[in-house]
Amino acid sequence: MNRMRGGCVAMAIAIHATGAVSLEGIAQDPQLPAFEVGSIKPQNGDPGFVPSSPERFVDANATLRSLIAWAWNIRSFQIEGGPAWAESQRFDVSARASQRVTERTMRLMVRQLLADRFQLRVRVEPRQMARYVLRTARADGRLGPGLQPASVDCAAVLAERFGAPAPAGSNAPACAWRVGISPPVARMFVDGAPLTEFAGLLERLLNRKVVDGTGLTGPYNVRLEFSSDQLPMGVPAADPAAPPPPPRDGLSLSTALQDQLGLKLESERGPVDVIVIESAQLPLPD
Asked: What single-letter DSSP state applies at residue 218?
């Protein structure tokens, strides 16, 4: 550890709180908080999933691009440039903070770790790209049965505990953001999230920027069911007027959004922030 400067197949995908972080602030900013100690080693075998915590960041089998995506809370389609090894070379990363930090602060700390160990230099550029806007689907603004106002702000709860479930016997809210897959059905469960966060979760399915244009505020509970053929959905068509791609069979995501949530996705072209990798180097051994 190096001391830093400062019957059916069923599957559940845990979705951590996004802990939205602005793209402002480049990785080499000397004012960014730093981990107390950190280790980056070539990936060796499959150590399995080890969750991060308020004191420790862990990412096994990570690429530089995946680390950048986490540090800036963006998707892979928002990263450009860099050496070829940035998406092929894999690393096991572990870093410890001197005290508990929020998820937002830890994202900033990972930016500093990448600057220190990979000599990462990036810039942020707005690009005109195809994107979706999430809007209410009905003229009267009525929402579907799967979208209900929530009494608990789970975004804050999950960010505090890094998406982990409440400990057994705890009185903490049973907050959960996840996609459960039991082919041919996929189900999305979101507790107490603003629709800006829900839009961010849809980005993972659509591989395209999703902007919240509903005008709805406050936390919501979401229960959405659609065809598992849409996971993963792949890259949508380049035509910004094209609707979300339909599944091979079953209920499309577009139809499910309208019928169950009273929402819809509209295609447009608009500004999307992109991280451009200016330079990076393979890290020195620990």
From this structure: S
Task: Extract the tokens encoding 248.
Answer: 């091979």
Q: What are the residue boundaries of the structural domains of the chain, listed by start?
A: 19-125+273-279, 128-272
Nearest partner of 33 among 126, 130, 98, 120, judged by Cα: 98
The model's confidence at residue 16, banded by pLDDT at 50, 70 and 90, is very low
**Tokens 């559940």 map to which residue?**
12
pLDDT tens string 155-182: 778 777 776 667 777 777 778 788 777 7
Question: Using an 8 Å Cβ cutoff, are 76 and 42 in contact?
Answer: no
Strands of the sheet with 56-62, listed across from one edge: 2-3, 37-42, 91-96, 56-62
